[in-house]
Amino acid sequence: MTPEINITIATMVVSHGGDLTIRTQLQECEFYYPTGYRSFVSLTRNLLTRPVQSSPVDIEYRVRLKANPALRKQSRCTSQSAMIRLSSRALVAVLAIPIVLYLVLALGFLSRSLPEPVLPVKNSPYNKHLERPNGDTSLLANATFVVLCRNSDLGDVLWSVQQMEDRFNKQFGYPWVFLNDEPFTEGFQERVSALTDATISFGTIPREHWVQPEWIDEDRAQEARRQMGMDRAHFIPYGAIFTASDRYRNMCRFNSGFFFRHDLLKPYKYYWRVEPGVRFFCDLDYDPFTFMEHNNKTYGFNIGIYEYKFTILTLWDTVKEFMRENPELIPEDNMMGFISDDAGETYNLCHFWSNFEIGDMDFWRGDAYTRFFDFLDKKGGFYYERWGDAPVHSIAASIFLRKEQTQFFSDIGYRHEPFQICPQGEDWTKRRCSCDPTVNIDKSMSCIPRWEGL
């Protein structure tokens, strides 16, 4: 097929008085013919506009290159930044830099076709054909990205999707599933869909999977939220605005026991959880989904930290009660050593940070985890305390799985505030990472050494 570059001359309209700062980022790309001929062209990306509430304000203006994957693999791009300051007392319209000459140059050398990339994929009973953006129907894993978000998260969602597409998914074309406890707006769907050629599905979470169950004592739950929100003696994660919120608890319970039951996710086996506003720092030239499949991996992670014990005061006692009542479900060669320093008597608070997960949903759908979640759910700790999906998933993986069924993705540069993981050495260079390799959660307050030592 003939490679293409799509360039949109964007118009940004902002209002309100005062100084307005517009941060632009241009990108110079070096393209190659198979014969070695090369040409340079600078491109601009259609602007991601957002309402301006006050000024000064920074608006990021990024490059987007849409071309044949084989072409992109033979290209190099170097970012350049520019700053524009304007004074705005009325309506200001800003047009993108004229690029007619660039278009002529780009289209001239892109009229030739390049060979399609060949991605080695093994046969598997779990594979299915998925249409890829470049028309290639190579077998991929039966997998999807899943994003739980609100309409108000649009800006952060665009940020996350763009990075995942640019760093990985433009080469593979895995579908996206977006879930919300309210219907997505048409504007949200339109803006997100513009960032990818992959299949996208937008779904609403069933009320019974989201709201606080009727059997929860609301007075007790409300008092628990109030006490945690007022607690000044202990540091409570995310601040009182979250810990005092029933919506946050709904989210933790949904991610713990229901996301994989949603109708839009039922067709899929593997998932990669992506959250709004996260960073993906590095190129990914292999498929983590097929890696999981071919190596019989069930759960993948890349950050491990300690939980705040004041949010889960009775969680471990509940887990021990479950294990005593269901010993047949607990294999002897599990990962108990990751979450306990005394053979299960106490919980050391280690957990995998679940905002990054690559996993097999059949594990969550299985009998052992279903019984485990239902047991925890009936105790009410999601609402009477603040049990999070991270310790729930991590404890389940540790008591039900062997270490070789889990995978530490140390080569995927990632940040979710306030922690990040950045590849080191050759991986940092090879994957064109933009993170600072000296800023790495694995060098402080990390549980990863415990997992590695199993």
UniProtKB/TrEMBL annotation:
Any one GO CC term of the record: membrane
Transmembrane segments: 90-110
InterPro entries associated with the record: Glyco_trans_15, Nucleotide-diphossugar_trans
Keyword annotations of the record: Membrane, Transferase, Transmembrane, Transmembrane helix
Top-level taxon: Eukaryota
Any Pfam family hit: Glyco_transf_15
GO BP terms, alphabetized: cell wall mannoprotein biosynthetic process; protein N-linked glycosylation
Molecular-function GO terms, alphabetical: alpha-1,2-mannosyltransferase activity
Entries under Gene3D superfamilies matching the protein: Spore Coat Polysaccharide Biosynthesis Protein SpsA, Chain A
SUPFAM superfamilies named among the record's database cross-references: Nucleotide-diphospho-sugar transferases
Family: Belongs to the glycosyltransferase 15 family.
Protein name according to UniProt: Glycosyltransferase family 15 protein
